[in-house]
Design brief:
- By secondary structure, the chain is an alpha+beta fold.
- The C terminus is likely disordered.
- The two termini are 32 Å apart.
């Protein structure tokens, strides 16, 4: 059996359905930390998104870069034009507008002192599980920019590799603790 197995067929939102069916030495969990623990202290609030896709025939480029943020100018918060990301050449283009919304799948934590206090209760439970690594915006209840998310993932990966190799993992980093 390989040292690391991955599965993308398991949604963090249906993790409970297969919790006892997966054998692991080290589990990397990226879903909402409160859902991992069955919401035993109550739900953490998250902001969700809805996506509006639009194909634009005959438009070679809609915007100068792959993603443009519009934090306060429109009802949507960003537009992504995928052809920039994959260097696609095509006479048309497809864009997606992201709209914030309260209900739906969780995408972003809502940073407030009372939410942080609730998160810390879940974090204490997570700290008692040495065979589970919680990483990412939802699992660490942090609003990470992509560079921060990548840093947290690299730190977590170093710890997992060290643990699976029988070495002492590096001490907890700030991104590890959330």
């Amino acid at each position: 059996m390989p040292a690391v197995q991955t599965s993308s067929r398991i949604s963090p939102f249906s993790f409970d359905a297969c919790r006892g069916e997966i054998a692991y030495r080290q589990l990397v969990y990226t879903g909402p930390i409160d859902r991992y623990f069955g919401g035993c202290y109550g739900p953490l609030p998250y902001r969700s998104l809805s996506f509006e896709f639009e194909h634009l025939e005959g438009v070679r480029r809609y915007q100068p870069v792959g993603t443009v943020n519009y934090p306060n100018e429109h009802a949507y918060t960003r537009i992504t034009e995928f052809k920039h990301l994959v260097r696609q050449e095509h006479p048309g283009t497809t864009i997606v507008r992201e709209y914030p919304q309260a209900a739906g799948d969780p995408y972003y934590p809502i940073p407030r002192p009372e939410n942080e206090a609730l998160y810390q209760r879940y974090r204490a439970l997570a700290d008692g599980l040495p065979d589970v690594t919680f990483v990412g915006r939802l699992a660490q209840y942090r609003y990470y920019n992509m560079d921060q998310a990548t840093g947290a993932a690299m730190t977590a990966a170093s710890r997992v590799v060290a643990t699976l190799s029988g070495r002492s993992p590096p001490g907890p980093a700030e991104s590890d603790r959330g």
